[in-house]
Amino acid sequence: MLNEILLTIAALQGRALAQSCPSLSASYPAPSVASGYEARLVATGLTKPRGIIFDNKNNLLVVERGVGVTSFTVSGTGSCVSLQNKKTVVGDNTLNHGIEVSDDGKTLYASSMESVLKYEYDSNGQSVKGDGKVIVSGMTTEDTVTRTLLLSKKKKNTLLVSRGSDENIDLSTVDINNGQSQIRIFDPSKSDVDYEQGTTLAWGLRNAVGVAENPKDGGVWSAENNADNIERDGFEIHENNPAEELNYHGIASDADNPLMNRNYGYPLCYGVWNVSEIPSAGTLQVGQQFAIAEANATTQDAFCRNDREAPRLVFQPHTSPLDLKFDSKGENLYVSLHGSWNREDPVGYSVSVIKFGSDGQPTEGSTSTSALTPILGNSNTTACPENCFRPAGLAWDRNGRLYMTSDSTGEIYVITKSDGKALDASAPSASAAPSKGYSVAGVVIAALTTVFAYFL
């Protein structure tokens, strides 16, 4: 009799788990997940999903290129997440990457290559009222198309907008008034401000797609996608140089910020990754900057070292960091690496984490080549970029789970600690159960009660 009871319990447990944890499968090999973490595919069939964010009702908002902004309601516990009730919030096929939402859930911001738009948003109905209002304009470029948005949590009415270069090596950006390869600050309550009228936080950034504010101290960080096909003194060095960069811009809300308006090197100076492949490297070290002037580039290295702001950390070239998200204590910075497109041996295609210390800075030094710890990646990068996922946007939900979009495959993943525990255990609602959805434990307990009632 006891064996029958145990067999029945096992069957009901399996059925409960299957019902409460919907399973989606991808067309490529299962991802590689680091020990101590879980990752689950929770949405498929999207159109090039890029930036994502959760509103104050825990609805997931997604920028789909060629579509606009769509939304999902979220249900489930742990990693057993279900995205439901998809609807179009903004039908504008020019929106392509940036997205932000105010803390009160009443204002939605989104970006196209040309403009930043503001919408009157209702988080209860996941809808906007009327058309979007242009608040920043004049950003069109021939090359980079993403315009990353960041609403400061430390200073009200402060919107940071990152804009890239007009070509791979855009020499016109040596002029700060060019308005490209920069992060500028805007007051989102104003309308139709030309990008070049914004306050310059940083320039000399080829394409700083990832931008984040550390909740601990308000420090602003950016992840720079560096130039391709670099040469130095007539030699091609682009396979392993220049490095992708993590740059620090100080505290934007600080009127005395010493890093305000600093130049980070582009298009004259680039971060070192592999010293041995740089001609006449001299005393150059990983993390320093080197010059690529057409003649006697080595004589310009001193200029790059003394007159340009060096990166705080460097990453392997061609990994293409696209998004940055701190946890709620500012102890971990998560990075989505979109991956290479023109490297002989593909690299990137993962989500990694950088440890930060109590001083608001990375624990690794600027010469480190191991600051990134991968937690989710493709198990077979040799098939990339054609047959693998490519991480793009990152977002936290109220339960401390991290979501990742893959634009190449039209998917969304959720990342947690093992057993579905919150990745950000200090998030305000990380320990609270979601308001909707199945609870695996609840279903199993109910099943056990039924079984024992029957046999007793």
UniProtKB/TrEMBL annotation:
What Pfam families is this protein classified in? TrAA12
This protein's superkingdom?
Eukaryota
The record lists the organism as Trematosphaeria pertusa
Q: Which residues form the signal peptide?
A: 1-18
Sorted alphabetically, which keywords does the UniProt record give?
Signal
Report the InterPro entries cross-referenced here.
Answer: 6-blade_b-propeller_TolB-like (IPR011042), Beta-prop_PDH (IPR054539), Quinoprot_gluc/sorb_DH_b-prop (IPR011041), SMP-30/CGR1_Lactonase (IPR051262)
**By what name is this protein known?**
Soluble quino protein glucose dehydrogenase
Say yes or no: keyword Phosphoprotein present. no
**Where does the Pyrroloquinoline quinone-dependent pyranose dehydrogenase beta-propeller domain lie?**
31-417
